[in-house]
Design goal:
The structure is a single chain. The chain is mostly helical. The chain has one domain (2-104). It is 71% helix and 0% strand. The chain contains 7 helices and no strands. The protein has helices at residues 2-15, 17-24, 28-37, 44-62, 72-77, 82-90, 96-107. Helix 1 crosses helix 4 (44-62). The protein is globular, with a radius of gyration of 13 Å.
Length: 110
C-alpha cells in the first residue's frame, strides 16, 4: 500500500525538520527517487491522491470552508514550497490517528 508509505513519509517529515529541509527543495522525480532510497516507496499518483484528500479533509471538515479558492487553506499555500506547505498546514492539522483512519478508509474504497 504505497499511499500508506507516503503517509509514513509525511509523518517522518513532520517530526524531523532536518529531513523536511532536505526534501523540501526537490522536484517530484527527485522526491520519489530519494524517498524510495530512504525506504519510502510511493508514486506520483499516491502523492497527488493523498495530498488532495488531506487538503479536502482540512478544508471541509476542520475549517468547514467551501472547497474552492475562498478556503483559508488555499491562501496558505501561496508562496510556499508544496511539500513544506503540505506538512506544516495540512498534515499537522490532523492527529496521527486521524491520518491513519483516513488512509484506511480510502483503502476500503471510500
Amino acid at each position: 500500500m504505497s499511499q500508506q508509505r507516503f503517509l509514513d513519509f509525511l509523518l517522518a517529515l513532520s517530526t524531523s525538520p532536518p529531513m523536511l529541509a532536505r526534501y523540501d527543495g526537490r522536484n517530484l522525480p527527485q522526491l520519489l527517487f530519494h524517498a524510495k532510497n530512504d525506504g519510502f516507496a510511493f508514486t506520483a499518483e499516491d502523492v497527488a491522491d493523498v495530498a488532495g484528500r488531506l487538503e479536502a479533509s482540512v478544508i471541509l471538515s476542520k475549517d468547514q470552508d467551501s472547497f474552492d479558492e475562498t478556503s483559508r487553506l488555499w491562501r496558505r499555500m501561496w508562496g510556499q514550497r508544496h511539500l513544506g506547505y503540505l506538512v506544516e498546514h495540512v498534515v499537522k492539522r490532523h492527529t496521527e490517528a486521524e491520518l491513519h483512519t483516513l488512509i484506511a478508509a480510502w483503502g476500503a474504497g471510500s
